[in-house]
Every structure is written in C-alpha cells, then in structure tokens.
Design a protein that fits this description.
The chain has 223 residues and is an alpha/beta fold. It has a single domain (2-221), classed as Rossmann fold. Helices cover 31% and strands 27% of the residues. The protein has a ten-stranded mixed beta sheet, sandwiched between helices. Helix 3 runs parallel beside helix 5 (135-151). The chain is globular and about 50 Å long. The protein starts with 8 loop residues before the first strand and ends with a strand.
Length: 223
C-alpha cells in the first residue's frame, strides 16, 4: 500500500486507539528513508525516544538517519522538561505548545528550506490538537499545512483517533485529504487488525478490509 502514494498527495489514517496507526506511520517513515527521502515526524502522543523504541519493537531502526529525519516534538512540552534536547534525538525540534499551531507551520517550512522543499511529513496524531484548540482552528491548520506541503511536491500522512471526534470533523478532514485509510479491530474466528483504503483520489484503490500484523518483521499486510 505504501508504494502507491504519489507526490503532492495527502492521506488521513483513521482508527481506534491501539490498532496500529503509529506502527504504520513508523514503517512508512522507514520506507521513505530507505529510498533516500527526507522525513519529518510530527509527534503529539509520544516522545521522539519512544518513537524510536516503538520502531525497534518491530525491527524498524530509525537511528542513523540524522541527516534526513527530523522530529517535531509536540509531546514533551507536557512533561515540563524545559528546552534541553535528548542526546538520543539530536534531530528533534521542540514545539512550545500544541496551542501554537502557527509555530508548527513555521518550523515545518524551516525544515523544508533545509531540504530544498521536498519532504515526507508524518503526523501522529492530529487528535491531541483538538484538546487545546477549537475544532475549526485545527481544521484550518490541517488545511494550511497540507496545502503548503503539496505546493512543494511533498507528501503528508496524518493519523486520527477514532471515536473521539464528531462525525462532521472527521468528514471535513477526510474531504481535505486526497485519500483516507481506515483501521479496525475485527472479531471473527480470532481478533484481527484490519486496514483498507476508503478512497485514494485518482488512484485505483482496493476498498476491501485486509488483515495485517505487527511483529519483529515489521508492519505486514496479509495477502
């Protein structure tokens, strides 16, 4: 699935907590890094150190990419740790507060300048921003950021927690993006995690639910 995303494209990934959205995001980041792409990981639910640790849980090593991977850390502000950067994530840029949405856009643009414009932006997740801002402000932020990324021929994946936002908010964000992926827990003979493409603009998309696994070999969609 990750090979199908073109340039100048935006995707919203929606699913319940714990289903595997973060692991998909990490696996996608490594996919782009392996291709020599520049990746910016905006993290709101975990620290950069925890992102690295989660990657190692499924055999995905994000270390060694200091020249092509940046973390925008919008999580550590809540720990009141001040401005010191971790030794393990020299390529981490602290965001002062999730209320300062404009700061995020400015710092994304600054990183794009370092990389001559073209990046792959991965956001996990948009949901915490809604706890600190009005819905319309977050939607406007997502719209501005997505437009800016696509202007530079870049790609953006944003995750969203299912069940904590109004249907109108989810529908609006889905409308703003070129594509939407969905994840779910499915209880049949066993409890499966499943993924599907709800829609992918101008692309042929298989909308059937497909089981996936997360283990030491990575994020794997079962054929």
């Amino acid at each position: 699935m990750k090979e199908t995303f073109p340039e100048k494209f935006s995707v919203l990934l929606v699913g319940p907590p714990g289903v595997g959205k973060q692991y998909f995001a990490i696996d996608l980041a490594k996919h782009y890094l392996n291709q020599g792409e520049k990746v910016v990981f905006l993290t709101t639910e975990n620290s950069p150190e925890e992102i690295v640790a989660r990657g190692l849980e499924m055999g995905v090593d994000l270390s060694g990419f200091e020249d092509s991977l940046y973390y925008l850390d919008c999580y550590s502000w809540s720990l009141r740790q001040g401005g010191a950067q971790s030794d393990s994530t020299k390529n981490s840029i602290r965001i002062s507060s999730p209320e300062n949405l404009n700061e995020i856009i400015v710092k994304v643009e600054r990183i794009m300048g370092l990389f001559n414009g073209r990046i792959r932006l991965i956001i996990h997740s948009l949901s915490p921003f809604f706890l600190h801002n009005e819905d319309r402000e977050v939607i406007k932020f997502a719209q501005l950021l997505t437009s800016r990324i696509k202007e530079e021929g870049s790609f953006i994946l944003s995750t969203l927690q299912e069940g904590v936002h109004s249907p109108s908010t989810v529908n609006t964000l889905s409308y703003l993006m070129d594509g939407k992926l969905e994840m779910r827990f499915y209880e049949g003979e066993r409890l499966d995690r499943q993924i599907r493409a709800h829609h992918l603009k101008d692309l042929v998309a298989d909308t059937r639910w497909t089981a996936f696994s997360i283990d030491k070999t990575g994020f794997n969609i079962r054929e």
